[in-house]
Design a protein that fits this description.
Length: 446
């Protein structure tokens, strides 16, 4: 498919023990052979050769060269990986020699692009490669590895086949209307099948959105009246001084954010300005931002000052968050306890100033353990979820048309759009499989 050979540095360009320069293409082995001290043409696939990279016959670096012959390689092309001593100078030098020997500098992501276009992986797997590289927590890594192993195609292919069968039935009925009554066929056969498919897509969407929530982190807001220790709590959770801490109420006037991993779950934390009545214009803006964050938060950490009795502002926040997914924290347990409130309210004692948050950590791990999504049963990117939602909407329109007894050829338009959106998730948008389904499932010889 490609008529040139590409090369690039596959490891970070920084001082280190090892760096890798990768080549891919029909000439990968012959190009590497021009600068290597041994004959790679005779090298067996999936083996490593020891030798020296040379320039004009003089050794430049002692290296290990891995050879992967097509089609059993990452790109389905001949691939060579030069494992050199790490360091920006020598790494760039070896890359330069490969380019002088006939390779072209690869574009960002071009090795994975070739793997996709050569049919080794589908588009969802290609996306997962990038997600694995960029993973910053356990949830993201688990999601990426399941997709790399082909979980998305395994999920979608049965749905695509079911949809093709529905479309094929309509096609046959349009071409050979004498075989089936249109209304009976639609309501007794196709409509139930379409509803089953819609239900499966809805379940997949729900799982996928929950998976995305875990991947990106639970949006968590720390709220409380001024000077109860919200900023100290944030700093203690993040183990860094990110928020300014003073005894002066209203110090935090804007949103301070950070991220923490608790078990396999990531929390995206926001320390908000203390919610109270204020005459300070700047503080008022911060309070409005805090109220907006509170409305869309997926988890609320409500902080109360255990060293003082409950005040009207505390009670207002207790009322405002009672329908939220919240954890009530009674802070300043290192001081004398003065707070009293309804014994039916569950709370967790903490001391943010002394970094005593063990009970909070235990509660977070317990609360979100049940949200551990089976990633092998969900999609892993916003693009995939968006296309699945498009397919869901297409099928919903087709079902409405079936129920309204619209002509089959009009129903088919929405079903084909749904098919296209499902195939687009995998990067396979064409009609060849539709024809195959028609001929394999129905006899059209008459």
């Amino acid at each position: 498919m490609f008529n040139d050979t590409i090369a690039a540095i596959s490891t970070p360009l920084a001082a280190g023990a090892v760096s890798i320069i990768r080549l891919s293409g029909d000439e990968a082995i012959s190009i590497a052979n021009k600068i290597f001290s041994r004959d790679l043409q005779k090298q067996t696939s999936h083996t490593i050769a020891h030798g020296f990279i040379q320039e004009d016959g003089a050794p430049i670096d002692e290296v290990l060269v891995s050879v992967f012959k097509a089609p059993k390689s990452y790109t389905c092309e001949d691939v060579v990986e030069i494992n050199a001593h790490g360091g920006p100078f020598i790494t760039r030098k070896i890359l330069e020699l490969t380019l002088k020997a006939g390779a072209r500098l690869a574009k960002p992501g071009e090795f994975t692009l070739r793997a996709f276009l050569n049919g080794r992986i589908d588009l969802s797997q290609a996306e997962a490669v990038e997600q694995m590289v960029e993973a910053s927590n356990t949830a993201q890594a688990k999601s990426a590895i399941t997709q790399i192993r082909g979980s998305v195609s395994r999920i979608l292919e049965p749905m695509i086949e079911r949809l093709l069968n529905i479309i094929a039935s309509i096609e046959v009925n349009i071409d050979y209307p004498e075989y089936d009554d249109v209304e009976v066929m639609t309501h007794e056969n196709l409509l139930p099948e379409a509803k089953v498919l819609l239900n499966e897509i809805n379940q997949l969407l729900a799982l996928s959105k929950r998976s995305q929530q875990l991947n990106q982190g639970i949006e968590t807001v720390i709220v409380g009246k001024p000077n109860v220790g919200k900023s100290s709590l944030l700093n203690s959770l993040l183990d860094e001084e990110k928020a300014i801490v003073t005894d002066i109420p209203g110090t935090t006037r804007d949103i301070v954010e950070g991220q923490i991993q608790v078990g396999s779950v990531v929390l995206r934390l926001s320390d908000t300005a203390g919610i109270r009545e204020s005459e300070d214009l700047v503080e008022q803006i911060g309070i409005r931002k805090s109220q907006n964050l509170l409305e869309r938060a997926q988890l609320v950490l409500l902080v109360l000052d255990g060293s003082r009795p409950l005040e009207a502002e505390d009670r207002e926040l207790l009322d405002a968050t009672q329908n939220s997914n919240r954890i009530i924290l009674v802070n300043k347990q290192d001081l004398k306890t003065e707070i009293e409130f309804d014994e039916t309210l569950e709370y967790i004692p903490v001391s943010a100033a002394n970094h005593d948050l063990s009970k909070l950590i235990d509660e977070l791990e317990k609360r979100f353990e049940i949200m551990d999504t089976p990633y092998e049963q969900s999609l892993g990117s916003e693009r995939q979820i968006g296309l699945l939602e498009n397919a869901r909407n297409d099928i919903m329109r087709a079902i409405e048309a079936m129920e309204a007894e619209i002509e089959p050829d009009l129903i088919e338009i929405d079903l084909k759009e749904g098919h296209r959106h499902l195939k687009e998730i995998l990067g396979e948008v064409h009609q060849d499989d539709l024809l195959e389904a028609l001929f394999s499932n129905f006899c059209l010889g008459k």
